[in-house]
Write a structure and sequence with these properties.
Elements: E1 12-13, E2 49-54, H1 58-68, E3 73-79, H2 83-93, E4 97-99, H3 102-108, E5 113-116, H4 123-132, E6 136-140, H5 147-160, E7 164-167, H6 174-184, E8 191-200, H7 215-218, H8 229-246, E9 250-258, E10 267-268, E11 271-272, E12 278-285, E13 290-296, E14 304-312, E15 315-321, E16 326-332, H9 335-338, E17 342-343, H10 352-362, H11 370-388, E18 394-395
Helix pairs in contact: 4-5, 5-11, 6-8, 8-11
Length: 396
């Protein structure tokens, strides 16, 4: 691996809403394809792709705009149990077909791929029929609400030979992707320590609306409505990108979860507010690096801020990002003697949507895939068990 000091020209890129690659992106070619069973070969280029949108909430609107911007992609149908929501969504995005169920959509069948944007609790039951019908699937994170379901989804996707991808949105952050390159190329030497955080504050201020009055936020606070709390909602992001950039998967985790009182009787209407609000983890990676990961919805003063600091035997990296920017800094060589940190360039990367469609057209796999999603779910499940055992260390 090269030991050259990376370029230090300042550069920031927009932290968009779609994912970046599991394997470091090749700066010239776009992406390194994952090893494993290839999907059925298809024509490359701008081969038309017909996309079905499963779920019509806020994220579906964002995804629809992203997919519609890709030449040759047509949104051909949507699925939602509510006819009113479905009709309004189709009218907004020019979608000709609407279905009340997965079964109705499959009976029609005139689509090539599905983007699953349903609530966490139904990812498994809604994705499996499409996999068995050999439809390509992009699924929101977390892949499932338990490891057994996530592992089954990964296994069936592989058996059916379809493109399968988890929409880990922060993989589109250019600074994170470049940091992964620099670590893989040996610029910071052997990784020894890391610290990562994902800080939100929508439980302390209404910048995104009043949480106590909106099902959009209330369901995220209720186990009975399929939420795994902040651990499953944003913790999955930070476990993913911290271990991805460090170039090694988690092998041990211990965790402390906290749920704070937010309403009389811990309930608002049908929502029992029992999901975790803060998560603190100690993690050891397979490369023996150790670090801390924490996420919370009570980080007053932070709307949606991500930070990763990674330290190796030859240098350090720091990634910071939010809804509107990303920044990469490094300290290498003589700069380490004075504690000097410099801005680093971060080349732009394609979105998750672009890479998902490109994989369908090329007949290749794409990362992060369902196998990665299943691994992340195993870490989350073990973190919950660790907390129940008073932060006992759990082997992944």
């Amino acid at each position: 691996m090269t030991t050259e000091t990376p370029r230090t020209t300042a550069g920031q890129t927009e932290a968009g809403a779609a994912g970046w690659a599991e394997a470091p992106l090749d700066r010239r070619q776009g992406e390194l394809q994952p090893a494993g069973r290839p999907v059925a070969a298809e024509a490359k280029g701008d081969k038309p792709v017909r996309l079905l949108v499963l779920g019509t909430g806020n994220m579906a609107r964002l995804q629809s705009k992203g997919f519609s911007a890709i030449p040759g992609v047509t949104l051909v149908g949507s699925v939602d149990v509510s006819e009113e929501r479905r009709s309004a969504f189709n009218a907004e995005h020019g979608i000709p077909q609407g279905f009340a169920s997965v079964e109705e959509a499959l009976a029609w069948g005139e689509f090539d791929a599905v983007t699953n944007i349903t609530p966490d609790a139904v990812h498994y039951v809604t994705t499996m029929p499409f996999l068995r019908a050999r439809k390509h699937v992009l699924c929101e994170k977390p892949l499932a609400t338990n490891y057994a379901h996530a592992a089954e989804m990964a296994q069936v996707a592989s058996m059916m030979g379809v493109v399968n991808m988890v929409n880990l949105t922060y993989r589109n952050v250019a600074a994170l992707n470049e940091a992964a390159h620099l670590v893989a190329e040996g610029h910071i030497g052997e990784v020894r320590h890391f610290e990562a955080s994902y800080l939100q504050s929508w439980l302390t201020q209404p910048a995104w609306g009043e949480w106590s009055e909106s099902p959009t936020w209330l369901w995220r606070l209720s186990k009975g409505h399929g939420s795994m709390g902040v651990l499953g909602d944003v913790g999955v992001h930070i476990i993913d990108y911290a271990s991805h950039i460090a170039g090694s998967p988690p092998c041990n985790v211990s965790c402390r979860l906290a749920t704070f009182p937010k309403a009389p009787g811990h309930r608002i209407g049908e929502y029992l507010l029992d999901a975790n609000d803060s998560a603190v983890m100690h993690v050891r990676l397979a490369n023996d690096a150790v670090g801390v990961i924490h996420a919370t919805r009570y980080a007053s003063g932070h709307l949606n801020d991500l930070t990763l600091r990674l330290f190796g035997t030859k240098g350090g990296l720091e990634v910071r990002g939010s809804n509107v920017f990303s920044q990469l800094r490094g300290s290498f060589g003589d700069d380490m003697l004075t504690g000097t940190w410099r801005d680093l360039d971060a080349p732009p990367v394609p979105t998750n949507y672009e890479r998902f469609i490109a994989a369908i057209r090329a007949g290749t796999g794409v990362l992060p895939d369902f196998a990665r999603g299943a691994m992340l779910q195993r870490v989350i499940d073990l973190a919950v068990l660790s907390d129940q055992g008073h932060s006992v260390d759990m082997a992944v």
